[in-house]
Specification:
The protein has 340 residues and is α/β, with parallel strands linked by helices. It has one domain: Alpha-Beta Barrel (TIM Barrel), CATH 3.20.20.30. It is built from eleven helices and 13 strands. An eight-stranded parallel beta barrel has the order 1-2-3-4-5-6-8-13, surrounded by seven helices. Strands 7-11-10 form a three-stranded antiparallel sheet, covered by helices on one side. It has a two-stranded parallel sheet with strand order 9-12. The model has no long low-confidence stretch (mean pLDDT 95).
Length: 340
């Protein structure tokens, strides 16, 4: 059994071929897709976060709105770039959104991906400390965030407050109990996956990772997951972790699917450089009729290792078509692979 969610990049474009031609279209359709996904039995609605781009950026208004419109589906991110975040303000936003959703947030955070602008986090007022890289700064922000959402008091109360205080040091409010165990780290290497395990974060592994061995992507990703689980065990955490992988998977069951995805997909891994001197391996996409798709997916070692599968959706094709894409996987593929 697996949890199956969708991951939306939240693109919009003024192109007449796009169903999302504005930020408003993308935000409102994201809410509608989460509602539709819950109705057909999808387990999670996850959203990418990018700055300075025609994509979803500030996630918490969207997550809160989805939380208010749904009752069961998990609501998450994949991922929030911690280089841009004030971890204390983020803790307040996350606590509020999680309370609105009734404790269903699953927040993916990370050091972020290549940006649309040069050092965009500087425009948000953040600078690495002396001797730090921007990745170090992201991890520092993440550790502060993890500490404050524990709910322990840390701030000295004013002796003459505007309103009466409870005794002792004060914590950030609103506090959402249990949110700390629902934070995920988006890891691009084995080492960062092991670091996440030591800090008690769940693991999100995407459709690319740093090429550390030259092996096929799904094998490298499976090895990363096993290294993460070993580090988790060594850390002695009291609860079991969760692991997600992301994939582009399309079951061709009608003429719409054939028109969009029936002309061949990226059926092999590719190699590229997401940053200078950072060679990455990008996983293949899957698009085939259900019987063929089932055979292909059964060979993916990383999917087998993970408990959660996030299906990337082409959000610019609209809510109805993306709901169809998700339902096709649930109906025609998942049962045969034991995911349902």
């Amino acid at each position: 059994m697996k949890k199956i969610g969708f991951l939306s990049f939240g693109h919009w474009s003024p192109s007449p071929q796009s169903e999302t031609r504005s930020a408003s279209d993308t935000l409102l359709q994201s809410i509608d897709l989460a509602v539709a996904a819950e109705e057909i039995g999808v387990d999670g609605a996850y959203f990418r976060v990018h700055h300075f781009a025609r994509q979803l950026a500030s996630p918490f208004p969207l997550l809160a709105a989805i939380g208010a419109r749904t009752s069961r589906i998990e609501i998450g991110t994949g991922v929030i770039d911690m280089r841009y975040e004030n971890p204390l303000y983020m803790a307040e936003d996350a606590g509020a959104a999680d309370l609105i959703a009734g404790g269903r947030l699953q927040l993916g955070i990370s050091r972020g991906s290549p940006e649309q602008v040069i050092d965009g986090w500087r425009h948000f007022g953040y600078e690495p400390a002396e001797g730090e890289t921007d990745a170090d700064m992201a991890r520092r922000h993440a550790e502060v965030f993890l500490n404050v959402i524990e709910g322990n008091g840390f701030a000295r109360p004013n002796p003459r407050p505007m309103f009466p205080n409870p005794p002792g040091l004060l914590r950030l409010e609103p506090h959402s109990e249990g949110l700390r165990n629902r934070i995920w780290w988006g890891a691009g290497t084995n080492a960062t996956a092991e670091w996440a395990a030591k800090l008690g974060m769940n693991l999100q592994s995407s459709t690319l990772k740093t090429d550390e061995s030259g092996k096929p992507f799904h094998i490298q990703q499976a090895e990363q997951i096993r290294a993460y689980r070993a580090a988790w065990k060594d850390a002695g955490h009291a609860h079991e972790p969760r692991v997600s992988v992301s994939r582009s998977i399309f079951a061709i069951v009608d003429e719409r699917d054939r028109a969009y995805f029936g002309h061949g997909t990226k059926e092999q891994d590719t190699i590229g450089f997401i940053e200078e001197n950072n060679r990455a391996v990008f996983g293949r996409s899957y698009a085939a009729e259900p019987d063929a798709l089932i055979k292909q997916l059964a060979q993916d070692e990383a999917i087998a290792e993970a408990d959660t599968l996030l299906l990337t959706v082409p959000n610019q094709l609209g809510v109805d078509y993306n709901a169809h894409v998700l339902e096709s996987i649930l109906k025609h593929v998942a049962p045969a692979l034991g995911w349902r």
